[in-house]
From TrEMBL:
Enhances Ca(2+)-mediated inhibition of inositol 1,4,5-triphosphate receptor (ITPR) Ca(2+) release. Residues 38-82 form a coiled coil. PANTHER family: CELL FATE DETERMINING PROTEIN MAB21-RELATED, INOSITOL 1,4,5-TRISPHOSPHATE RECEPTOR-INTERACTING PROTEIN. This is Inositol 1,4,5-trisphosphate receptor-interacting protein. GO terms for molecular function: protein kinase inhibitor activity. It comes from Anseranas semipalmata (Magpie goose). GO terms for cellular component: nuclear outer membrane; plasma membrane. Belongs to the ITPRIP family.
Length: 549
């Protein structure tokens, strides 16, 4: 459009400049024929008018073309703006389609077998309790007196006998070991259900742990998963143990991390101390070519040492001693000539710093737990603190409190059900963890003996909730409310909570089996208890309403 206007102005200016009346030629005169001049001027004017019209049409055409271009550009911009959300919805639809297709393939391959049924069952899991006829107080009291209390005396006699023999065996073990080269064995400690007085299922097995330490001038330095270094999720609850000289820096000297050069020496470490012979470290039960204590090496050493110790004192006893499990270093069995036998576990452990937390070489395994990630990974046990917590909290509870009774009954029911339908992912340790959480959560007066029925229902409900969520947290790890009287290490209280049910997330078949066993146990509760209950006259049960959970 500006170009057209410029061209019109140029034509007008040219016409004006060339007009003969305004700019006559030099020495020129006015023509004599006026009419001829007028005619030519009219012709000139007509040609200018036509040129003007042509230019106006051209300008109008250019303006129309410009408007069309602007309109087209606006339409294109609007299309682009509409295309963005359209592309987003298209991409989202494609993602949803792919997810549905992947789910369909997994379902067809059987990877998610019964997933829908599992979620439906868990959604109404609480309703399963409403149809369960729970034994009343009289039946529970009779069952506890007949089936549970009768075993208390047997446990006490067995503990006394096993502890006495274990002390004698360890004393003989010290005598056959080389004090300058072999590990130093300390006194054993009793842990677990037998020493917390809630073991109900036979055969009774005493669990004894035996701390040991390296010979001088060596010491153990440990590293746990929550100390700052990254551990894989499946290795939470584990740690490593390094065999070091007592005068060696904990953090390690810079000479171990930096090449000092041939003409430089470390003033703290001589050349002879920087590298240790492989045979020396293997004698210290370390993994090959490392300083890490090897649980398998410890197992072999301990079994050999126990065998030598028994050979020295076997003439004093009228029974035989043997290892009952090949994959456990201290699973021992006493066999009497009468045919009876007593089993107990004597397991070597390493103390964590100055606490009563211990690294255990071989932890009793079950179908839920996976194998140890490595023989240099040691599991941490808090069994000593668990026993102390139960003893401490028992002092604040009413006389004859029902917390141990609840755990015993629940352990009995679960054990009976597993003997009928096979093992599940639940263990007695899980059941004890449930009791520990409730002991901390409920007021002391709620554990009076007459509230046995209510507290047993609470434990079942809590266990149901944990199974539903696949979350049962370790009682001590990540628990900032541990009583200060226990002297529990603060590093474990500040750690992230450890989910004992994490394997359920990874093993759906075990989880399904565990939930089915739990439901079946609920349905069989009355039958299992009545099977071991003395008949109660009707007069004693009149007016007692059978409650449902």
């Amino acid at each position: 459009m500006p170009v057209g206007i410029f061209r019109v102005c140029l034509v007008v200016i040219t016409a004006i400049v060339n007009h003969p009346l305004l700019f006559p030629k030099e020495n020129g005169t006015v023509p004599e024929n006026t009419e001829e001049i007028i005619r030519k001027m009219k012709e000139r004017e007509e040609s200018l008018r036509l040129e003007k019209l042509r230019l106006e049409q051209e300008i109008a055409g250019q303006e129309a073309a410009q408007k069309a271009l602007e309109k087209a550009a606006k339409v294109v911009e609007e299309i682009k703006e509409e295309k963005v959300p359209w592309d987003m919805w298209t991409a989202l639809s494609m993602v949803i389609f792919l997810l549905i297709e992947l789910w369909r393939q997994d379902f067809q391959e059987g990877n998610w077998q019964d997933t829908g049924a599992e979620e439906d069952d868990m959604a109404v899991l609480g309703k399963a309790f409403k149809g369960v006829a729970f034994p009343d107080k009289a039946i529970l009291a009779s069952f506890y007196e007949k089936r549970i209390l009768g075993t208390t005396g047997d446990m006490a006699r067995m503990r006394e006998m096993v502890e006495g023999f274990a002390d004698d065996l360890l004393e003989a073990l010290r005598s056959v070991c080389n004090r300058d080269a072999d590990m130093e064995v300390e006194d054993c400690m009793g842990v677990g259900s037998m020493y917390e007085n809630w073991r109900v299922r036979k055969p009774f097995v005493c669990d004894l742990i035996v701390p040991f330490a390296p010979p001088e001038p060596y010491c153990f330095r440990s590293q746990i998963w929550c100390s700052g270094d990254s551990f894989p999720p499946d290795e939470q609850g584990y740690g490593t143990i390094k065999v070091c000289r007592a005068d060696e820096d904990v953090a390690g000297c810079i000479c171990d991390k930096t090449k000092l050069g041939e003409d430089m020496l470390c003033l703290l470490h001589s050349q002879g101390n920087t590298t240790r012979p492989s045979s020396e470290m293997e004698d210290l039960l370390c993994f090959k070519n490392t300083q890490n204590l090897d649980a398998d090496q410890v197992m072999k050493w301990f079994q050999i040492a126990v065998t030598k110790a028994w050979n020295r004192i076997s003439h004093k006893y009228e029974f035989d001693l043997s290892f009952s499990l090949l994959d456990s270093p201290g699973a021992l069995k006493i066999k009497f000539r009468s045919g009876k036998s007593i089993a107990f576990n004597l397991t070597p452990v390493v103390q964590y710093e100055n606490s009563d937390v211990y690294f255990i070489s071989h932890f009793p395994r079950n179908g839920l737990a996976a194998d140890l990630p490595s023989s240099t990974r040691w599991f941490l046990t808090f069994a000593v603190y668990e026993r102390r917590f139960i003893q401490l909290i028992s002092k604040t509870l009413p006389a004859n409190a029902c917390h141990v009774s609840c755990l015993q009954i629940l352990s009995f029911l679960h054990g009976k059900q597993c003997s009928l339908t096979g093992p599940s992912g639940l263990t007695n340790y899980h059941l004890k963890t449930v009791m520990l959480h409730l002991l901390q959560a409920r007021p002391s007066q709620d554990w009076a003996p007459e509230k046995l029925e209510a507290r047993l229902q609470d434990m079942l409900k809590f266990l149901e909730k944990c199974l539903h969520e696949k979350k049962l947290y370790h009682f001590f790890i990540g628990n900032g409310k541990v009583p200060a009287e226990l002297g529990f290490p603060i590093i474990f209280q500040r750690a992230e909570p450890l989910n004992l049910f994490r394997p359920f997330v990874l093993h759906r078949d075990v989880y399904r089996k565990t939930v089915d066993t739990f439901h079946e146990m609920l349905r069989n509760t009355s039958a299992l208890i009545n099977e071991y209950t003395v008949h109660i006259p009707l007069a004693h049960t009149n007016g007692i309403h059978k409650e449902s959970i």
